[in-house]
Amino acid sequence: MPPHGYSVGQIVELVPGKYDGNIPRGAYAVTRLLPNDGSDREYRVRSQQDGHERVVRESQLRGRGAEALR
Question: What segment(s) does the record annotate as region Disordered (predicted)?
């Protein structure tokens, strides 16, 4: 599997899917790259709005402006 597309400290946009429940979309900071365990890379991220941390899949993230790596 290719390396992670985002790096620790990068600000990304979380875009939850229709089956992701009440996950608030918005700006999150990547705090940790998690080991690859399947078809989608995972990250630990912290909300820039309320500080809540969560684990998300790379497919739920989008780069923000000049900070986007892809």
Answer: 40-70
Q: State pTM to two decimals.
A: 0.83
Are 23 and 15 in contact by the 8 Å Cβ rule? The answer is no
Torsion of CA 25, 27, 33, 37, to 10 degrees: 20
Q: How far apart (Å, rounded) are the C-alpha atoms in residues 44 and 33?
A: 7
